[in-house]
């Protein structure tokens, strides 16, 4: 959904109805999901994906997984995701540090 910042009308992006409204000042709807710490697509089903991954690996494998994700998010932040990618890197780095402490 998008909301017109001029008149407040809502429009479904999939069924573009912007032509029904005289305004062209559309804004994306605010997403309140925590896309860094608990993305909804990784928390469905009663267990977080990261917990299932950890349970499937030994300590060294899991540390390698965390390190690889840090590298991935550092590698791509200037091309995709920006600050959010850096926050995701930090999320994985914090878990790696926790594994080593």
Sequence-ordered SSE layout with sheet pairings:
Elements: E1 2-4, E2 10-11, E3 26-28, H1 49-55, H2 59-76, H3 83-100
Antiparallel strand pairs: 1-2, 1-3
What fraction strand? 5-15%
Q: End-to-end distance, in Å?
A: 44 Å
Report the structural category.
mainly alpha
Percentage of residues in helical conformation:
40-55%
Describe the main β-sheet briefly: 3 strands, antiparallel
Count of the separate structural domains: 2
User: Mean pLDDT, rounded to whole units?
Assistant: 77
Low-pLDDT runs of 5+ residues are 12-22
Order of helices and strands: EEEHHH
Could you give the order of strands across the largest sheet?
2-1-3
Count helical runs. 3
Shape descriptor: flat
By DSSP, the count of extended strands is 3
> If you compute it from the alpha carbons, what radius of gyration comes out, rounded to the nearest whole angstrom?
19 Å
């Amino acid at each position: 959904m998008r909301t017109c910042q001029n008149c407040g009308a809502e429009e479904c992006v999939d069924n573009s109805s912007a032509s029904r409204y005289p305004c062209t000042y559309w804004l994306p709807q605010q997403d309140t999901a925590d896309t860094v710490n608990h993305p909804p697509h990784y928390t469905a089903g009663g267990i977080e994906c990261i917990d299932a991954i950890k349970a499937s690996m030994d300590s060294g494998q899991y540390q390698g997984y965390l390190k690889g994700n840090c590298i991935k998010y550092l590698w791509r932040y200037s091309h995709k995701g920006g600050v959010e990618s850096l926050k995701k890197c930090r999320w994985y780095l914090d878990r790696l540090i926790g594994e080593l402490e």
